[in-house]
Write a structure and sequence with these properties.
This protein is of the alpha/beta class and about 250 residues long. About 40% of the residues lie in helices and about 15% in strands.
């Protein structure tokens, strides 16, 4: 790390953000670009809106189209390097959710969520981490969840994946902290995203959720900007294995 640079500056860095085309991923990508980073987004589709936002900030942008449920992580990292060079920051944001009662939950829905939310996140961290370890530094940020701490309802595979991701964050921090690679996580609270549409459209669930949030509102994707910049920058050089809730106070109640 360049100890002479402003502590929150990402100038000269390249960040790879999975699911950077929409929602939380787009907000994180734009925040990192605002701090000076060039951005690679990995998603199943193009990311024209994110590209425009990042470009307007004067930063470089590339999109790597890949299905995280089946793509090889080494290939994704290699393709990213071909576009914008060495990856300094990895944000494992991409995630999907399936809802069903536990006694009716299908193996197909279990595998789909675990493959994207947990398996892909670990092997991308492994592929990027090898390169970061070789050059003596890097930042990995996993996007966890309130269900990294709690059980939830009707989301068995999502709860398992996000709980597992919290554990992997700590494990990787234990292994890599002394070698210059920071591995931490952000745990968003209840945010306005496609994944929460069903909850927000259920009047009872929506009211119950809002009643528990001390801030009194659902979070917006842009609320993650500060935590993302902090964990991606040298300001967090002595932060390892942390899971930072950005939840409007949900866990405090």
């Amino acid at each position: 790390m360049d100890v002479g640079a402003p502590p929150f500056s990402l100038t000269g860095k390249t960040a790879l953000v999975t699911g950077g085309n929409v929602g939380l991923g787009q907000a994180i990508a734009v925040a990192l670009a605002e701090a000076g980073a060039d951005i690679v987004s990995v998603s199943r589709r193009g990311a024209p809106e994110t590209a425009a936002k990042v470009g307007a900030l004067g930063r470089r942008f590339a999109n790597v189209e890949a299905d995280l449920a089946s793509a090889r992580s080494e290939e994704i990292i290699a393709r990213s390097e071909q576009t914008l060079g060495s990856i300094d920051i990895l944000v494992n944001n991409a995630g999907i959710i399936r809802r069903a009662d536990a006694d009716q939950f299908s193996e197909e829905d279990w595998d789909a969520v675990i493959d994207v939310n947990l398996k892909a996140a670990f092997f991308l961290a492994q592929a990027a981490g090898k390169r970061m370890l070789a050059k003596g530094g890097g930042k990995i940020i996993n996007v966890a969840s309130m269900l990294s701490f709690q059980g939830g309802v009707r989301v068995a595979s999502y709860t398992a994946a996000k709980s597992g991701l919290a554990g992997l964050t700590r494990l990787l921090a234990n292994e890599w902290a002394a070698r210059g690679v920071n591995v931490n996580a952000i745990a968003p609270g209840y945010m306005v995203t496609d994944n929460t549409t069903a909850l927000r459209e259920d009047s009872k669930r929506n009211a119950d959720i809002l009643a528990r949030i001390p801030a009194g509102r659902w979070g917006e994707p842009s609320d993650l900007a500060g935590a993302a910049i902090f964990l991606a920058s040298r300001a967090s050089d002595y932060v390892h294995g942390a899971i930072i809730p950005v939840d409007g106070g949900w866990l405090a109640r």
